[in-house]
Design brief:
4-stranded antiparallel β-sheet; 22 strands; globular; 455 residues; 8 helices
Length: 455
């Protein structure tokens, strides 16, 4: 009889311990491409910023670490008579390194008051491309009041209201430098975030190098510049000093009879100088990667003459901004972002722009250090939902995010949101394992006491 009880006790303990072992120790945070989840190895990245201006022009300089330079975006690889696309976007890093590095800055003049308190979070609406629950059609960043209902990505305000918002300045000015699709031209992409993330009026820097009717590329390098090789791209031996982009000076119409060989490569993007308001932002010199760091300087007229596209900057003005970078062959939402920061032109701010005389600034060693963080899948509707976010009441009161959270905390919070169901399930497993162990201990104690009384 005692032997049977002892076996029962051992079985209870063993079963409880086995359950605990099976449900613990492996963790729940892991890459899951099927759910558009890829967690970066580094949750925070440093960014350095400088700003200066003269009578007519604004300058920003950015510096951030990257293991290697990302200046390819996607390419066409020749194989057995066909041109194959390499470099399609994926969750997290692109395996062949074919996704350009980028730096972006959103800028406001106070017309989007939530932006100055919560930064880029206000532009992360429901349904965005790359989220686990992304919409069935592509949805880019957008501001809350461009929708009739918070969280309704497909319930857009009517055209008249959107036009009035834009006229009133309810948009974010987006400065967007691309290592592959703009830098070779000495240009950045002048964009905005309003009802969507879009380009300013005019023409951007890149188009697709593919002729659908002829089923072949449109352009190729001139004969004097040869071709790129797939093996060299994979090995990382192509440098910024090589000819790697289809800019006008080195391109000619595609010749299908040029003696193509397996492994020959042509960029999938044709680059041409931007036009109109979309071409307002230039690169001073060229963005360069050296010794593990990108160093990029952008410039734009203080007053572009396009107030419906750009935030007009003035001496002694105060503005709000937030930064983001892509590195290590990542695209889409797999970037690092900053908390909102203030910009002062000749007046104090988190970043103070110094006024100078002459054509270009002489940069010193004084930088503003910004900590960027991986934001995960945290949306503006979720942050304003008291059932989903304990801090929703503070947002309702207008308490800035920086008063309550550090970048490191926000990175961890973003990951928690990506794995919220799994974390909850793990908590339930932990609770159940604890109950089983307590029950096994209770049975063991009861049997022990009865055995002593019987003795």
């Amino acid at each position: 009889m005692r032997s049977a009880k002892s076996l029962l006790i051992l079985a209870l303990f063993g079963g409880a311990l086995l359950f605990a072992w099976l449900t613990h120790g492996t963790g729940v945070v892991r890459d899951d491409p099927a759910r558009n989840i890829a967690i970066p190895a580094d949750l925070t990245v440093p960014l350095q910023v400088q700003a200066a201006y003269n009578d007519s022009t604004m300058f920003f300089r950015y510096r951030w670490p990257a293991e290697k330079p990302g200046f390819f975006h996607d390419i066409l690889r020749y194989q057995d008579g066909e041109w194959i696309v390499e470099g399609k976007a994926v969750p997290g890093p692109q395996a062949d390194g074919l996704h350009e590095d980028r730096v972006a800055m959103m800028l406001d003049d106070g017309s989007v008051p939530e932006f100055g308190r919560y930064g880029g979070y206000v532009a992360i609406g429901a349904g965005l491309a790359g989220l686990t629950d992304e919409a069935p059609e592509e949805v880019t960043k957008y501001l809350p009041q461009t929708r009739n209902r918070l969280g309704a990505w497909d319930d857009m305000a009517d055209d008249a209201k959107l036009a009035a918002q834009r006229e009133a300045g309810y948009f974010l000015d987006l400065w967007h430098w691309r290592g592959g699709r703009s830098n070779p031209l000495g240009a950045a992409d002048d964009q905005y975030v309003g009802s969507k993330r879009g380009g300013d009026a005019g023409k951007g820097t890149y188009g697709t190098n593919w002729d659908k009717d002829l089923n072949q590329p449109k352009m190729m390098f001139t004969s004097g510049h040869g071709t790129l090789k797939w093996a060299d791209i994979q090995a990382g031996t192509v440098t910024q000093d090589d000819t790697y982009a289809l800019i006008p000076a080195v391109t000619v119409p595609f010749d299908p009879n040029a003696g193509w060989q397996n492994g020959d490569v042509i960029p999938r993007r044709i680059l041409t100088p931007p036009e109109g308001s979309r071409g307002n932002i230039g690169v001073v010199g060229a963005g360069r990667w050296t010794d593990g760091y990108w160093d990029v300087t952008l410039s734009r007229a203080l007053d572009t003459g396009n107030p419906a596209d750009d935030k007009i900057l003035k001496d002694q003005g105060a503005y709000q901004m937030a930064f983001a970078i892509h590195r290590n062959a990542t695209g889409g939402r797999w970037h690092y972002v900053s908390l909102p920061a203030t910009l002062g032109l000749g007046r104090p701010g988190d970043v103070t722009a110094t006024r100078f005389q002459g054509g270009t600034p002489t940069w010193g060693d004084s930088w503003t250090d910004v900590t960027l963080f991986y934001p995960g899948q945290v949306t503006w509707p979720m942050l304003n939902n008291a059932r989903a976010h304990a801090g929703a009441e503070y947002i309702a009161k207008g308490v800035p995010v920086a008063y309550r959270h550090s970048p490191e905390q926000l990175a961890n919070y973003g990951i928690e949101q990506e794995f919220k169901p799994q974390i909850k399930r793990q908590w339930l497993f932990t609770l159940l394992a604890g109950v089983l162990l307590i029950a096994a201990f209770g049975v063991a104690l009861d049997v022990t006491l009865k055995n002593r009384k019987g003795a």
